[in-house]
Write a structure and sequence with these properties.
Blueprint lengths: L1 E2 L7 H37 L7 H25 L1 H21 L3 H29 L2 H15 L1 H16 L4 H4 L1 H15 L3 E2 L8 H20 L7 H22 L15 H17 L2 H12 L4 H19 L2 H27 L9 H25 L9 H31 L7 H22 L12 H4 L7
Antiparallel strand pairs: 1-2
Helix pairs in contact: 1-4, 1-5, 1-6, 1-8, 1-12, 1-13, 2-3, 2-4, 2-9, 2-16, 3-4, 3-8, 4-16, 5-13, 6-13, 9-10, 9-16, 11-15, 11-16, 11-17, 12-13, 12-17, 13-15, 14-15, 14-17, 16-17
Length: 477
Amino acid sequence: MQLNSPAPADDTAVKRYLPWVVATALFMEQLDSTIINTAVPSMALSLGVTPLSLKAVVTSYILSLAVCIPVSGWMADRFGTRRVFSAAVAIFTFASVLCGLSQSVPMLVAARILQGMGAAMMMPVGRLTIVRTFPKSELLRAMNFVIIPALIGPLLGPTIGGLIVHVTSWRVIFFVNVPVGLAAQWLIHRHMPDYRGDTQRPLDVVGMVLFGAGTALLSWLLEVFGEHKLDATSNGVLLLLALCLLATYVWHAGRTDSPLLRLALFRVRTFRVSVVGGFVTRLGLGGLPFLLPLLYQLGLGLPAWQSGLLMMPAAAGAMGMKLMAAGLLRRFGYRQVLIINTLLIGMTISLFATVSASTPLALIVLLGLTQGLFNSLQFSSMNSMAYADISHADTSMASTLASSLQQMSMSFGLACGSLVTGWYLGGLPESNQLALTGALHHTFLTLGVMTVLSSLSFWTLKPTDGESVSKGNISVT
């Protein structure tokens, strides 16, 4: 990849302003993804559906991300990072307005899919620009700088969402993105460098159809499974079809010169462990943003605004950990940090099973703060280690592949969390507060055990893996 058009300023200025450009867009995206969770009960009441059935509004967005992210790398190489990033923000902002104007669940889901398409180009292209601008010795610091402002979104999202729902309509939560999107556009056109690919590789249309169809079908099956919309035979046939589509893509990717996702990158151990291990870990974490507001509002009977406040400690803890993550990784290394931290995450998820109406709010706040600390360290570690041994020429493909599987894991995690909750609920109505609370408690225990088991994937790392990032032993620009 090369810089075909000049940067808007010298190299120092690009490094100074680029993290703020990417962080503003990530702030908007993170604000949207967290602000909606607090409003789910109110949205369900307004649209005349059950809260758990609204997981389609959340999963459709994440699914759209997973399906569309693979194309973002090709688009950035073809049209340039600045143009693609600007278009992504514009689509996301426009789709947000459509979400706020939706009159039914299908309309809202369609708008969320369009919104996910915009976000699909934002995340990997922003990350790619950071990776291409900063040497590996500065990469961890740059990524953490980007994430700190972006975490203000999760910090404010639940509270703003709760207050908006308490004072006015849930539709207003989507209109918050408009001024942020306009500010992001101004920053993009002033400070975003325009990286393009060295060669114009063709778009792998066959791979896009195979991977997109397989991923979409598999996620849809997780969405409807347990709701008795299909019989067991139909579910089995569609599951087999989804797996066959994905298996065919693996076969296709190994036999084409320019695959949509180059799976050969998994031969790099640090990349493989980061992405595959992170996939399993995110299965346990993916359902928490959706399940915790249900526990607080429907299980404990708290109002939306108070539920939003209880989501803030996790975001505050995440921001605090970004200031410490580099030092911890430099001292203890990726292997030790990821093994121990994954176990701690599993324990904190399981502890949510002890939260009840009699639990002091101070303990809930402490648990949320602890969860945010551990989750933040996990994501910083996995996201930065993925690029430790990736060559200069492979950064675009690595960013696309990592982002695709990360979003798939979060989509599957959210669907699995909702599915497990429905299974433990055992057909009882969600209005049964005692039954719903018990089902959520059992779900947190199940997700916690899954996360603890995912720590096994990080044992394959070597003590020195990732030192080109954590200690700056190698500087590759």
